[in-house]
Amino acid sequence: MKYLIAIIGSLIVAFAFNFFLVPYEILSGGISGIAILIGLITPFDIGLMNLLLNLPLIILGYYKLGKIITLNTLICVVSLSFFLYVLPVMQVTDNILLSTIFGGIISGIGVGLILKYSGTSGGLDIIAIIVSRASNFSVGLLLTGMNGIIVLISGAAFDWNIALYTLLSIYLSGLVIDKVHTNHIKLTMQIVTTKGEAIREELLKSVYRGITITEGYGGYTKEKKHILMMVVTRYETTQIKKIVRNHDEQAFINIYETVEVDGVFAKN
C-alpha cells in the first residue's frame, strides 16, 4: 500500500509540474526545480534530469536513512521521473497566479503523501529529513529555507516576476507539506489511570518512548491514581490510546502539542 501511495503521490507532483508550473516557467523546490530549470533552457528532458540529479542524494540517503527509506526514495524518484516524461506539458488556466497557487498546493499534497507513507521523495527531502531528525525544525520549513537558492536561480535565468511566483509556489508547497506530513509534530500525553503498572509494562514493550510516572488521587473520589506522562509523535497517539483503553476504559487522557523538546527524543 505504501508503494502505491508513493506512486500516486509522484503522479500528483508530476501533474502539478506539467499542468501548472512548467507552462509558465515557474520552478518547484529542490532537485525537481533544478531539473525543470535545465529542461527549460536546454533540450534535455525534465524527467531524465530529475533522475540523474537525484542519484547522488539517493546514495547519501542509503548511508544516513537506511535501506528501507532508500528503496522508497528510489521508487518515488523513478515514478516521478516517468510521469514527468509521459505527461504532456499544457496550461490548465491562462492565469499565472492561479497556476502558481494551485501548482504549489497540489505539489505539496503529493510530496506530503510521499513523506508520510514512504519517507522521502528524494532530492532535498533527504537533506531536510536528516536535519529535521537532528533538530526541532519541521521538514516543510527546512525545504522552504533551502529552496531560497532556487528562487535566486529563477530570477537570474528568467526574470524576477517569475522568481516571485516561484517563491510563492515553494512557500505554499511547504505549508501543505507540513499539514499532510505531521511526523515532526510532538505531543505530550498525560494518562490518569488506576491501572498504571499494567499500562506502563505494555507501553514499554510496544512504544519506543520514555515514560514519567507520578502518583496522585482523584479530587472527588480520593481514589489513588497513577499519572503517566509521555512525549510522542502524532502517529503514535492512536496506538497508545488503544493500549490504555485495553487496560482501563475509565482512564483520563490529556493530549496537547509540545512546542520544543530539549533532551533525548528518538526521531527515527
Describe the biggest sheet? 4 strands, antiparallel
Per DSSP E runs of 2 or more residues, the count of β-strands stands at 4
As a percent range, the share of strand residues is 5-15%
Provide the number of structural domains: 2
Along the chain, the helix and strand elements come as HHHHHHHHHEHEEHE
Strand order of the largest sheet: 2-3-1-4
Helix content: 55-70%
Termini separation:
21 Å
Which value, in Å, is the CA radius of gyration? 22 Å
Number of DSSP helices?
Answer: 11
Structural category is alpha+beta
Shape: elongated
Overall mean confidence score, pLDDT: 83
Describe the structure.
It is a single chain. With 268 residues, this protein is α+β, with helices and mostly antiparallel strands. The protein folds into 2 domains: 179 residues, no CATH class; 73 residues, Alpha-Beta Plaits, CATH 3.30.70.120. 62% of the residues lie in helices and 12% in strands. A 4-stranded antiparallel sheet has the order 2-3-1-4, covered by helices on one side. Helix 3 runs antiparallel to helix 4, helix 3 packs parallel to helix 6 and helix 5 runs parallel beside helix 9. The protein is elongated, with a radius of gyration of 22 Å. The relative contact order is 0.13.
